[in-house]
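_Full entry_
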Amino acid sequence: MDVAKTRQSPRRDLTAELVAHVERYEPDPGPEPGTTEHTPAEVDAMVETLLREYTPQDLWVFAYGSLIWNPEFEFEERRGAIAYGWHRSFCLTLTRWRGTRELPALMLALDRGGSCQGLAYRLPAQDHFKQIGLLLAREIDANPPTNVARWITVKTESGPLRALAFVATRDGKAYAGKLPMDKVAQVLARAAGHWGSAAQYLFRTVTMLKEQGIRDRNMNRIASLVAEEIEASLLLAGKPDL
């Protein structure tokens, strides 16, 4: 079967049915050699540093990926927001969570340049220290980290806000840089870890972006390419097309 010929077919939507064919769970390999998990004391120190840089009266968090479809925190308000000078990018390499050492995945982060449309959440006005600590423990990848927290300014219909966001450090060990869309799609269509598949992560993100009225042509194109990759693998395996 000539896989290249399958790409001549009309653009394919990434669906839950297609993702189900590659959904799986792999054993957690633990931290990458040379890295560790952050201790509670280290997380507290990072929170203290952030709050010294800026002490918000209202704590806002800017969401661009999984925090849109799975925030895991209570919030008082949600607004559409745009971060200028940053763009949504699959620029972080994962060797656990949704990837393994043998088959690494890619995860979204904010990378420099362009703009990113997302959501701004206002968290409850209580114990900001604890709320930020929970976010850091969830979002920061490894120690030393490549996905780091910083305060950025986002634009909303009600005016600019200072919000906490997670951005890529380009000198970080897990930084993958700007990759061609077809390369990103090949990775996302195949990788999985103990949190499930990278294709599921993409599908949930694209689905929620659409539900929130957020247009991202690059994400939609990557989703289409991942659908084609999965469909081609099914054809090669002799499985019926969906």
Residues 1-8 have pLDDT under 50 and may be disordered. The radius of gyration is 19 Å. Strands lie at 60-63, 77-94, 105-122, 147-156, 159-168, 192-193, 196-197.
